[in-house]
Amino acid sequence: MNHTPKVLRDAADLINLQGLHTGDEFVALDGALDLVAALYQAATLILPTAFRTDADTAITHIQNSSRAMTAIRAVYDTLPAAYPEVHDDADVIDTVSHWAAVGDFGPDQQPPTTSEVIGRLLRLADRLEQQDTALAA
């Protein structure tokens, strides 16, 4: 069973409810979540304190969750080709977080709105479900 569409939808719901954080660490003081933190929480149903205080430990938690990493990689795969090549999971995490906070690379760089981030998650969830349905047929 492919859990990724549900993780993506749940992350979209979390961002809608708590807000999209685009600053330091993975969680803002007001509870807003970085895209990667939302995906991790949606995948694991928990959000360790390290997400608020220790980015390195948070990244280790993320890397140790196959469901979270699968969802993060799926989002990464939707990003424009202008993003630099990644070498490991930490690069994928950083790139997805960067996209949600800053936007596409280039001279006209604009961060996506919260609605655009949520929309990307929901469209990706729909596309993955359609692929799963087609494969099952």
Write the layout of secondary structure elements.
Elements: H1 4-18, H2 35-44, H3 50-53, H4 55-63, H5 66-76, H6 89-102, H7 114-136
Structural class: mainly alpha
Average residue pLDDT: 92
Spell the H/E element sequence: HHHHHHH
Largest sheet: none
Would you identify the regions where 5 or more consecutive residues have pLDDT less than 50?
A: none
Number of helices: 7
Distance between the termini: 15 Å
Helix content: 55-70%
Record keyword descriptors for this entry.
137 residues; mainly alpha; 7 helices; 0% strand
Question: Please, could you describe this protein's structure?
Answer:
The chain has 137 residues and is mainly α. 63% of the residues lie in helices and 0% in strands. It contains 7 helices and no strands. It has helices at 4-18, 35-44, 50-53, 55-63, 66-76, 89-102, 114-136. It starts with a helix and ends with a helix. The mean pLDDT is 92.
Brief account:
By secondary structure, the protein is an all-alpha fold. The protein contains seven helices and no strands.
